[in-house]
Amino acid sequence: MAIATANQTLHTIVVYLEDEPGALNRVVSLFRRRGYNIESLSVGHTEEANISRMTLAVRGEDEVIEQFTKQLYKLLEVVKVTDVTEDSTIIREMAIIKVTADKPESRAEIMQFSEIFKARVLDVAADAITVEITGPEEDVERFFALLRRYGIKESVRTGRIAIARGSVANSAI
After folding, report:
1. Average pLDDT score, the chain
2. How far apart are alpha carbons 97 and 164 in whole angstroms?
């Protein structure tokens, strides 16, 4: 079982895989069998037909993560694996947060915080405001921290997604 140590880095791994039933499970099982926690996982379709892009955030030593990338290639559905941790990338996360807002002053403060963080107000109800924020993980965390004092009724987060900066193309095939 993997034990967290001080020299473990949070790695961002991008996996292109064929869009087939069970493919996601096989990738996740590779980490689970070795006792590694996937801190974040996002999957979606790509511009290529029948190819999905998976972004994983996994904490581990560089050598161990390199072994994982090699083992991922042994899975039939996997087309390409890249550890983009050291690359120049844009990393974002999205969250939708429903916050208690049953007082006029708390509504005003939540709206003001939303404006400062460039979050969008999606819904206003008698006792709650629902906001959406997209940005670097640190900004999303800071926004959550500010909203916690009002009472978070419900929230959902996408997890980390990443793309290379500039004109560098990370083509799947």
Report:
1. 90
2. 28
For the chain, the domains span 9-87, 90-161
pTM above 0.90, yes or no: no
Helix (H, G, I), strand (E, B) or coil at 8: coil
For the domain spanning 90-161, the CATH number is 3.30.70.1150
C-alpha R_g of the chain:
19
- pLDDT band at residue 2 using 50, 70 and 90 as cut-offs: very low
Q: Which fold has domain 9-87?
A: Alpha-Beta Plaits (3.30.70)
Separation of alpha carbons 87 and 141, rounded Å? 23
Would residue 10 be called left, alpha or beta, if left means φ above 0 and alpha means ψ between -120 and 50 degrees? Answer: beta
Rounded Cα–Cα distance for residues 120 and 132 (Å): 5
| β-pair type (120-124, 78-83) | unpaired
Instruction: Write the burial class of residue 103 (CB in 10 Å: 0-12 exposed, 13-18 middle, 19+ buried).
Output: exposed
CA–centroid distance for 98 within its chain: 19
Q: Identity (one letter) of the amino acid at 62?
A: D
The helix or strand, by DSSP H or E, that contains position 67, with its residue range, turns out to be helix 62-72
Topology agreement, domain 9-87 and domain 90-161: yes
Task: Kindly state the tokens that stand for 89.
Answer: 């990338």
